[in-house]
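Q&A log
Question type: sequence-to-structure
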Amino acid sequence: MGGEIIVGLDIGTTKICAVVGDVRPDGVEIIGMGSHPSEGLRKGVVINIEHTVNSIKEAIEEAETMAGCEISSVYAGIAGGHIKGFNTPGVIALKEKEVTKKDIDRVIEAASAVAIPMDREVIHTLVQEFIVDDQDGIMDPLGMAGVRLEAKVHIVTGAVTSAQNIIKCANRAGLDVYDIVLESLASSEAVLTKEERNLGAALIDFGGGTTDMALFSKGAIKHTFVLALGGDNLTYDIAVGLRTPKLEAEKIKIKYGCALSSLIGKDETIEVPGVGGRKPRTLSRQILGEILEPRVEEIFSLLYSELARSGYEDMASSGVVVTGGSAELPGISEMAEQIFNAPARAGYPEGIIGLTDLVNKPMYATAVGLVLYGAKARKKNKKFRIRDTNIFHLVMARMKRWFKDIV
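Response status: OK
Response body:
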């Protein structure tokens, strides 16, 4: 291990995944990964602390064993219907007639000075562009001459309790939290190319409990949105439509699922296990397509309506990138192309070296993206914000580990 170890922890509705990255001069090397089914979340929000803590511990232990190192701090992802994003401007006068570091901090502060309800907190303040006098589209105004500096920022807020519960779960599992990162922002680090960010692209993170969307243009984030529908809804529809247990419905979705029934052959069949000891039945695969297609269409249509409402629909000129666990469902890209009327592709994690074959799936895009986000943040020497760290839980967890090692 040559560089600095960074760990991304994706606390999802269907799985909790930890990816360990070693930051080297030639890139981020993936050296370990651990994944465990998640039982304590619903729609991206923690509903059972104990179950979530146990799942985190399992995933972390698996990642530690593979990477051969102890994990003590993580970058954690956050999602859920409570996430809201909005754009806001800020303006200041330049005293020195030249932009200094202090001026940049001041203008971002001015843009961030918006009234936020007590039950919400700012998760990200993302700069879209700076304007010096009337010159717009500036990404780094440091040292430029002018009398007036303006900043346009995108602020992402979330429910205080949801953020605290994620930190609480990580703390109880014996981990510090360096930062909480919006999952769609993390995924974008792993799956979007520089050209897509500049030209304009809509990233859709189709997860288990939520589907997150982030719109990028001119290298900056323009809009974020979280829809409280995801792959779990597809599984539930199959369970109800085919009258089969939820666990079996999930298996059927993964093995035979298709988002476009027109792609399914007329004579294809599937075997469906019965409920309560009833005999399995053989059905046409077309029926499965007819169950899944309307739900996938509904999810993409809701995302497209949100894009149209925001006024940014023309900005996704390079197309749509679909990632997350449900992105592997056949027909997903074709359905996205139909609804968004733009080219679409599945997003696989890129820009990494090492154990790439282990994490080369859309479902690991968020965890890999968290590692890449962390590597970038460290490079910029960003201050870590470990919030609500319960020292007692941390010390106890550490001591338990020591004793376990001794025994």
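Response note: The chain is about 35% helix and 30% strand.
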